[in-house]
Amino acid sequence: MALNSKVPKGPIKDKWTTYKDKINLVNPANKRLIDVIVVGTGLAGGSAAATLAELGYNVKAFCYQDSPRRAHSIAAQGGINAAKNYQGDGDSTYRLFYDTVKGGDYRSREANVYRLAEVSANIIDQCVAQGVPFARDYGGLLDNRSFGGVLVSRTFYAKGQTGQQLLLGAYSAMNRQIARGKIEMFNRHEMLDVVKIDGKARGIIARNLITGEIERHSAHAVVIASGGYGNVYFLSTNAMGSNATAAWKIHKKGAYFANPCYTQIHPTCIPRSGDYQSKLTLMSESLRNDGRIWVPKHMDDVIAIREGKKKPTDLSEDERDYYLERRYPAFGNLVPRDVASRAAKERCDAGYGVNATGEAVYLDFASAIQRYGKEQAKIHNIENPSAQKIYDLGKAIVEAKYGNLFQMYEKIVDENPYETPMMIYPATHYTMGGVWVDYNLMTTVDGLYCIGEANFSDHGANRLGASALMQGLADGYFVLPYTIGDYLANEIRTGQIPTDTPEFDEAEKEVKDRIDFFINNEGEHSVDYYHKKLGQIMWDKCGMARNEQGLKEAMSEIKALREDFWKNVKVPGNANEMNPELEKAGRVADFLELGELFAKDALNRNESCGGHFREESVELDGEQKGEAKRNDEAFTYVAAWEYKGEPADAVLHKEELEFNDIELKQRSYK
């Protein structure tokens, strides 16, 4: 099957507007005859469900949490991008488009990214109308801050709780439609398979996670909005329940999976403290606005700090290596996430890590507190302020911007980050890879759509900070509601889809057989035993740095681990009750397959690109010495994998990427 991205012809600035003018529509009376299933109720799924229901479609929404309010989108901290140019600092739709393509290391589809930039401004207006309490400046206007990889301030935020506030906005819109009867909400339900009839997605099989009942649900179209697969690493900043099952199930039914090796390692996370941990904690990238990242210049100081003989505050400015400012003077601490993460790893690998494990660098706010304190003293006409007064005034400003993040850090680490620098280290955070979709956000299966982090479409090999919330809400509020109508216009005579068909029978039997296996298998190891082993392989050999030998080893080791899993996994309890271990077993089974495809994709992509750093592909000389080296002649394509049974047997399909509006060149943030 040939990939057809269905990107409209014409100038990039006109593509979306012209396209909307010409696609098929469904009239309001006919929308009442059409059912749509939405799996996932985070920002993408919640906004899509609310908008489709508002338009008149009958929506069934599914989430495995006890409420849509608990979707992992709630954990997003720093902000949401939009090209409104409130600061008057040169931002524009084109600049957001350019920054996103460049930040993704020129591995994203231009047309999708320009559309994302184009609709971004509408998102802010929509959310303000919903009552989202964005931060405002002294005059009452919406405030902005900077994020990595850009030279403008375009990030709208609500302290360090932006995801929560945006999700509450989408949730309120959903609740309105639930009350009207246009959304039927299925909390504590997990999608375990998709049902295809005559090549079209016509429903799903879901498990009621409280009773264990297996249910059939039909629709004229199915939308997957189930988030990313970062938990393939076991330790990540994702919620422990975040999983890849919905995306992987549709992959096994014909939806191609694109660029699985593109994983984002976030530079500012609380370092791992031991093998007992079950997840990692994100510290928002917004902290890099005001925090300066450094390690000691001298190894004697590193050793003294690790042994508790010195504190970081004992070191003078001359004894500190602000390595991002040194290596990347144009962007400094605001380089993109992949660049900042690799730089932190390089310093720690060289022995300059400042905690007991040697895997931490400092994020220091002392300079910001001084700067803000002096500024506030002038504003309040305080002459000759004392050092304590400057500190107090500056701390109040930092607290207003980042207070809940500082509080969270102190509760976890038991150190006051106002008085001593935070310790941070890179961790798995976001996945740029995902289900392949065309310009309509439809997968390679008719009637099956994929939106938000679950698809691959917008971020290339590295996502810019604050763009995840932007993509999720853009897809749900402003893209899918248009494009899905083009498909559903041909479904108005179909009538209700029955669930008593051979296709539903077969899909349900597959689901029940797998559940029966897990419950009845007399193994000796827990699900977490296998998940942790998988995560270790992924981090060691498919993590921040990769090489050919390690990736080949990863593929064989994951396959062997998967074979052992199917022989020796043990799941307590039974199927007809609430059983979290049974839920995890199915999810880890899918991760064990996805992990091998991940390694296969990374092995195929023999270039350094974004967060995918191949040790064999590095700049050896010149200004970019030591930086990632892309291979545009061989790898300017989307790698879309077709399922053929074993992950090692997956077939590669290439979507060649065209760069007509942005010059394809090596990135530089120096």
Describe the structure in your own words:
With 670 residues, the chain is of the alpha/beta class. The chain has helices at residues 15-22, 28-31, 43-55, 93-103, 110-130, 162-180, 245-252, 299-306, 323-327, 337-352, 366-379, 387-413, 468-488, 502-520, 527-541, 548-568, 580-604, 632-635, and strands at 35-39, 58-62, 80-81, 155-156, 183-186, 189-197, 200-208, 214-218, 221-224, 257-258, 263-269, 292-296, 320-321, 361-364, 422-431, 434-435, 448-450, 545-546, 613-614, 637-642, 651-656. Among the domains are: 267-428, Succinate dehydrogenase/fumarate reductase flavoprotein, catalytic domain (Flavocytochrome C3, Chain A, domain 1); 509-635, Fumarate reductase/succinate dehydrogenase flavoprotein-like, C-terminal domain (Methane Monooxygenase Hydroxylase, Chain G, domain 1, Up-down Bundle), CATH 1.20.58. The strands form six sheets. Strands 5-2-1-9-17 form a five-stranded parallel beta sheet. Strands 11-15-14-12-13 form a five-stranded antiparallel beta sheet. Strand 20 (637-642) and strand 21 (651-656) form a beta hairpin. Helix 3 packs parallel to helix 13, helix 4 packs across helix 5 and helix 5 (110-130) crosses helix 13. The relative contact order is 0.16. The active site is at residue 337. This is succinate dehydrogenase. Residues 531-669 form the Fumarate reductase/succinate dehydrogenase flavoprotein-like C-terminal domain. Keywords: Cell membrane, Electron transport, FAD, Flavoprotein, Membrane, Oxidoreductase, Transport.
